[in-house]
Amino acid sequence: MTDFSLTAQHTDGDLALVHVAGELDMATAPRLRAQALALIEEGHRHLILDLSAVTFCDSTGFSALIGIYRCAKTTDGTLVLAAVPDRLERLLDLTGLSTLLPAHPTAAHALVAHTPSPDTANSSDNASTCGNAV
User: Fold this and answer.
1) What residues have CB less than 8 Å from 127, skipping those under 6 apart?
2) Angle at alpha carbon of residue 25, lines to 102 and 30, rounded to 5°
3) CA within 20 to 30 Å of 11's CA: 38, 46, 54, 115, which one?
4) Residue 120 above 60 pLDDT?
5) Phi and psi at residue 80, in whole multiples of 5°?
6) What is the spatial distance between Cα 103 and Cα 109, in angstroms, rounded to a whole number?
7) Whether residue 127 has pLDDT greater than 70
8) Contact status, residue 124 vs residue 45, Cβ threshold 8 Å
């Protein structure tokens, strides 16, 4: 099993940057999903996933990204990808999900592009429904 790590860096009240490293597969995708959903529940409804150190992503990793996207949307949040590996980028393009999951060349670009949104009073109230999002 390849090393896998997640490092969350909170950059703003409702924004979190998550660095993902290693293989994103059946063994590790649940960790990514759980940590991302926990961040959303904590009020960080805008997530940037830095995938620059992801070495592999299978269908369960892909599914985790979709689940995170759905959960973020239920809280009026966003999911943005940064430094997407070529193979995953092609998969996102082929499935049409690249239109829903904007990607930036680097995490720094994604942070600069993030436009803070006005606080929505009950935006985190919907986060508890994300546990079942796939």
Assistant:
1) 37, 40, 41, 45, 71, 74, 75
2) 80
3) 54
4) no
5) -125, 140
6) 9
7) no
8) yes
pLDDT in tens, 72-117: 999 999 999 999 999 999 999 999 999 999 999 999 999 999 876 5
- Name beta bridge partners: 50: 19, 82
Contacts by residues 105-109 (CB-CB < 8 Å, ≥ 24 positions apart): 106/50, 106/52, 106/82, 107/17, 107/19, 107/48, 107/50, 107/52, 107/82, 107/83, 109/82
Cα 5–Cα 34–Cα 109 angle in degrees, nearest 5: 60
Residue whose tokens read 């429904």: 129
Tokens of 8: 């969350």
What DSSP string describes 10-76? EEETTEEEEEEEEEESTTTHHHHHHHHHHHHHTT--EEEEEEEEEEEE-HHHHHHHHHHHHHHHHTT
For residue 62, what are its two tokens? 């892909």
